[in-house]
Each structure stands twice: as C-alpha cells, then as structure tokens.
Specification:
Elements (H helix, E strand, L loop, with lengths): L10 H10 L8 E3 L12 E12 L4 E12 L2 H16 L5 E2 L2 E14 L9 E12 L2
C-alpha cells in the first residue's frame, strides 16, 4: 500500500473554480466560506470538504463535497442547487489542473435545510463524492 501524499489536492478550490466557470452560475457568489456581510438571502454556493478517503494503491482522493446553496427564495435556491450539481457532475473524466476527476457520485441532495444561523435564509444542501486521481 502506498502512503497518502503529504497534502491532498485543494478540492474546495477545484470545485469553486469549476462552478465559477459555469455560465448557469454567473453572478452567483461561489466560495469556500461566506463573504463579509452574507446574511443567507443572496445567491450563493458555499463549498466545503466534509471528509473522504484516500485510496493509496490507486492514488485517488475521494473527498465528500458539501454544497450549501442559498437564494433569495426557496425556488431560487433550488434552481442554483441543481445548477451546481449539474456543473460538478459534468466533470467526470475531465482533467482539472494537474488532477483528473475519474468519478462523481451524488450522495445526498438537494435537501431543504433551514439555516438557524441566518434567519432569512433559503438553503439547500447537497453532498457529492469525487474521485480525483492525484499525480
């Protein structure tokens, strides 16, 4: 068995870059953390790594990526959640930077989830597992 790399690829950045490049998400805040002044009512997709696994023999990082998707209405948030899912699912087999996304599998979502931090928020959550070949 091979050992994991000293640092995994920055999959949050990889996913943020993929989503920012998608025309369906033009004008949407896409980031790994909420920007200053965020109150949950803006169009936004927040991207977070929520664990995952390293397959040493295959040299594959399999992170779980969570989207927190916000919009000014529940319908708007749902539309954005579907756009973000579609954009990430479309990366199967593509090289992104120095890495190749060999598989993308939805684990959960989109799921309506009230946000108790931001009272006026309309939020959907999605969890997607990537398989990223690390070179």
């Amino acid at each position: 068995m091979t050992t994991p790399p000293s640092a995994f690829p920055d999959v949050e950045k990889l996913v943020v870059d993929v989503l920012k490049a998608d025309p369906a998400l033009t004008g949407v805040t896409v980031a790994a953390q909420a920007p200053a002044g965020f109150d949950g009512t803006q169009n936004a997709v927040l991207v977070n790594r929520r664990g995952g696994a390293w397959l040493g023999d295959l040299h594959v990082d399999m992170p779980l990526i969570e989207f927190e998707v916000y919009g000014p209405t529940k319908t708007a948030a749902h539309v954005l959640a579907n756009a973000a899912r579609r954009a990430l699912l479309a990366t199967i087999g593509k090289q992104i930077g120095a890495n190749v996304v060999s598989d993308v599998e939805e684990q959960d979502g989109p799921r309506w989830m009230p946000d108790y931090l931001y009272r006026g928020a309309n939020r959907y959550l999605c969890v997607i597992r990537l398989s990223v070949n690390v070179f």
